[in-house]
Specification:
seven-stranded mixed β-sheet; 9 strands; alpha/beta; Rossmann fold; two-stranded antiparallel sheet
Length: 239
């Protein structure tokens, strides 16, 4: 059975490579965005912009169905000014190949930026839907959620991509999303279409303090796959 997401996913450019989200991932995002009913989607990890385009198309479909209002937008953040898979192209360049111009205007690209930038640009308890698809190497996914937690409202949905990456990648790296998704004791939902499912949601509880404590514990429970500057990690970890 096809989904409205299939058409926009099929328009992803070849230069974006194989690292962009898959067909089932796109279908999951369409489904969750329609259910969330929020006008602003925040993305952390733009890269080529394939997922950014899919998020925007999903919002447009949700608006057409009456699920979200007319001021819908996607705000996408990335640490790089150029796409990592093709440095000759600016970050997010695929949106121009995948979307009509009126939808491209609904997207705000922010780079160079990181999760702390998200917190700084959004008020407390403001964000209702966050898609995290930045660095997958532990501890970055946990730190990304820690850094944005104050800006997330209670009940907000946070979607993580590549939650099964170590199982499906021969490289055997990028355990961060899996550690976070499997390690958190919060309400969750997972894509039922993938085998194994590679995208899933966690929901921010009313009291964020236990979630914050769990994230700090997760950061320290596993060997780090990549070095993170102390000036970034220490404030998030309360050191």
């Amino acid at each position: 059975m096809t989904s409205p997401s299939d058409a926009v996913h099929a328009r992803r450019p070849a230069w974006a490579g194989s690292g962009s989200i898959g067909l089932y991932d796109a279908r999951y995002l369409f489904e969750r965005i329609h259910a969330a009913g929020v006008e602003t989607i925040v993305e952390l990890g733009t890269a080529a912009g394939v997922s950014t385009a899919i998020l925007c198309e999903a919002l447009a479909a949700a608006h057409d169905a009456g699920a979200v209002g007319p001021e819908y937008r996607v705000v996408s953040y990335d640490r790089r000014a150029t796409a990592y898979m093709d440095p000759s192209r600016p970050t997010g360049d695929a949106i121009h190949e995948m979307l009509e111009p009126q939808l491209v205007e609904r997207i705000e690209l922010r780079w160079p930026a990181n999760a702390v930038t998200v917190r700084e640009e959004h008020g407390a308890d403001e964000i209702g839907f966050l898609f995290i698809d930045a660095s997958h190497r532990h501890p970055w996914p946990a730190l990304d959620l820690l850094a944005t937690l104050d800006a997330l409202r209670s009940g907000a949905e946070v979607v993580f991509h590549d939650i099964s990456l170590p199982e499906i990648s021969e490289a055997g790296i990028g355990w961060g999303p899996k550690y976070v998704f499997e390690g958190l004791d919060v309400e969750k939902q997972v894509d039922a279409g993938g085998s194994p499912p590679n995208i899933g949601s966690v929901f921010v509880p009313e009291d964020k303090r236990p979630l914050r404590e769990q994230l700090v514990a997760l950061v320290e429970a596993h060997e780090w796959e990549i070095e993170v500057p102390d000036e970034y990690s220490a404030p998030l970890l309360g050191r």
